[in-house]
Amino acid sequence: MTNTETTVVKKKTREWRVVDIVVASVVSVAVGVIFWAWSAGYAGIAVITAAFPPLGGLYGGGWLIAGVIGGLLIRKPGAALYCELLAAVVEALLGSAFGLTVILSGLIQGVGAELAFALFGYRKFTLSVAVLAGALAGVAMGIHASFSSNAEWAFGWKIVYLILGAVSGAVIAGLLSWLAVRGLGRTGALSNLAARRAATESVF
Question: Dihedral of CA 77/83/86/88: which sign?
């Protein structure tokens, strides 16, 4: 295969198909509903962590699922960002407790998840990559919060929140999303997607 032919093949494999758009959108809407419910539950978390608010970072992983699962399913440039942002828009439309600010949060968190897949050229979708995507989305969440909702916190608190957000993202968004996609792969539900072999792929 010539260099030109290789380039054409790579371009085609990275192009979004109608099925990719449909699946990514359906998944994003579904996760957007989860985001909305997750936001509603944060009121209780705020009470529990009142003595040390940075502990709330451990709850943040629930808002990072869309980007990771979208990247693992679609495996095309922009998938993680698209899914995280669309899910955030759905959350906002449903009446999030955080208002329209969740849309900007979704954009920033989506960039964090997208970066992990981009680092591996959208060719590796192992557990470690999924965990990294969740962690980077958590870091993005922490950085954004440092200039928005947590702007008045001491620097040390912001760092703790960022670290705990990364851990939460790695476990909730990274590990659980990877397990979910692998499970779906076993059912044959991903036969029309790039992730169709997810169930038999190497873990690492």
Answer: negative
pTM: 0.92
Count the helix, strand and coil residues of the chain and give each as a percent rounded to the nearest 5.
75, 0, 25
- Work out the percent of the chain whose per-residue pLDDT is above 90: 92
CA distance 164 to 189: 34
Tokens of residue 118, six digits:
């981009």
> Are the C-beta atoms of residues 158 and 144 closer than 8 Å to each other?
no
Distance from the first to the final alpha carbon of the chain: 29
Q: Which tokens is 161 given? A: 């929140």
Q: Are 167 and 58 in contact (CB under 8 A)?
A: yes
Cα–Cα distances in angstroms (integers) from residue 47 to residues 95, 160, 203, in the given order: 21, 18, 38
Classify 50 as helix, strand or coil.
Answer: coil
**Inter-axis angle of helices 65-74 and 18-48, to 10 degrees?**
160
